[in-house]
Amino acid sequence: MIRAGIIGSTGYAGAELVRILMGHKDAEIVWYGSRSYIDKKYASVYQNMFQIVDAVCMDDNMDELAAAADVIFTATPQGLCASLVNEDILSKVKIIDLSADFRIKDVATYEKWYGIEHKSPEFIKEAVYGLCEINREDVKKARLIANPGCYTTCSILTAYPLAKEGLIDMDTLIIDAKSGTSGAGRGVKVPNLFCEVNENMKAYGIASHRHTPEIEEQLGYACGHPVVLNFTPHLVPMNRGILATEYAKLTKDVSYEDVKAVYEKYYKDEKFIRLLDEGVYPETKWVEGSNYVDIGFKIDERTGRIIMIGAIDNLVKGAAGQAVQNMNLAFGLTEDTGLDLVPMFP
Ligand SMILES: NC(=O)C1=CN([C@@H]2O[C@H](COP(=O)(O)OP(=O)(O)OC[C@H]3O[C@@H](n4cnc5c(N)ncnc54)[C@H](OP(=O)(O)O)[C@@H]3O)[C@@H](O)[C@H]2O)C=CC1
Ligand SMILES: CC(=O)N[C@@H](CCC(=O)OP(=O)(O)O)C(=O)O
C-alpha cells in the first residue's frame, strides 16, 4: 500500500486528490495537510466526505510527513513546494508537485513569469515534467515530478503530435482556451464571485498568462526549436472543464486521414486520450469527472489552417488525476489504477 500525504488537501486540487485516492486500491491517505484547518475534521471542510473520511487536518511538518508517507503531493500555491524540498526529504519520499515550481527548466523564466524567487533551483534539472503520455519512462524513475498545469496539459496534448511531426508552422500557433472557475482554486477572489462569473465570459492574462512559457517550452521540445505563441485563457461560468481551441497554418497539403494518422501514431494506445471521429468536436461535459483528454480537429481548406480542439477536466487530467497517473508510474503500478473514472453527464 502506498502511503500518500497531501499538502494543500483542503484546496480544490487537493480535494480532488482525496476523492480519487479514496477509490485507489493500492494507496491510502495518511496525511491531510492544511494551513487553516489544523486539527479540524477533514469532513467538516468538505461535507461530501462525511462518514467517508474520518481524519483530521494536520500541519505541514515535512520531517514527520516524510517519515509517514511514501509520496507527498503538494497542491499548494506557487513557491511553497520549492521552499520545502531538500535532499533529505527526497531521499525518503517522492514528491509530486501540482504547482508550477519545477515545470519550467529555466529559473529566470520561472521567476519572470511568476514574479517570485525560486527557493530550490538546484532541483529543477532533476524534476521530471509529468505529462505521462510524453514523458512516461522518465516519470517511472523520478523522485520529483512536476505535474503540468491544467491549461498546459490540454494545450500541449492537443497539438503535440502535429508539432512533433512538423505538420504545423509553430510561428502561427494560437491557443484560445476556456476554463471553469474551479481552475482558480477555492480562495476568495472578487473576479470569481458568482455575480462576476455567472452569465458572463471574460478573457484574462492576455499576452501574459504564466502558462504561456510552459506551453512554449514543451512544444519547443516536441518540434525541436524554440516556440513563441499566443495563449489567451478565458473564464467561463461552469465549475469544471477546459476547452482549448488551437489554430495553426499547415506546412503541407494534407488530408483529414493524413492528420488522423499522425494523431494515431502517438495516441492510439493511450487509454486517456480519445481521438474523436471526423466531424465530432470535444465538449467539456464529455470528460467531466474523468481523466480523459478528448481531441478533435478540422482542416480549413479555405485558410490553410488546421483547427485543433481539446477538452479535459481541469481538476482531473489537469491536476489530481494526472498526479495519480504519475504516482502509479513512479511506483510501478498499472498506469490507470484508481483512474477508471467514467465521465458524468449532464
Ligand atoms: N484548481 C485547478 O484546476 C488546478 C490547480 N493547480 C495548482 O494546484 C495548486 C493548488 O490549487 P487549488 O487547489 O486550485 O488552490 P486552492 O486555493 O483551492 O487551495 C490551496 C491549498 O493550499 C493550501 N495553502 C495555501 N497557502 C499555504 C501555505 N502558505 N502553506 C501551506 N498550505 C497552503 C491551502 O490550505 P488551507 O485552505 O488549509 O489554508 C489549500 O489547501 C496550485 O499550485 C494550482 O496552481 C494545477 C492544476 C489545476
Ligand atoms: C481559471 C483559472 O484561474 N485558472 C488558473 C490556472 C490553474 C492552473 O492550472 O494553474 P497552475 O499552473 O498554477 O497549476 C489561472 O489562470 O491561473
Automatic annotation (TrEMBL):
SMART domains (UniProt xref): Semialdhyde_dh
Signal peptide span: none
GO molecular function, one term: N-acetyl-gamma-glutamyl-phosphate reductase activity
Active site: 150
Pathway: Amino-acid biosynthesis; L-arginine biosynthesis; N(2)-acetyl-L-ornithine from L-glutamate: step 3/4
Residues passing through the membrane, by range: none
Keyword terms of this UniProt record: Amino-acid biosynthesis, Arginine biosynthesis, Cytoplasm, NADP, Oxidoreductase
UniProt-annotated location(s): Cytoplasm
Record-annotated Semialdehyde dehydrogenase NAD-binding domain positions: 3-142
EC number: 1.2.1.38
Family: Belongs to the NAGSA dehydrogenase family. Type 1 subfamily.
Protein's name in the database: N-acetyl-gamma-glutamyl-phosphate reductase
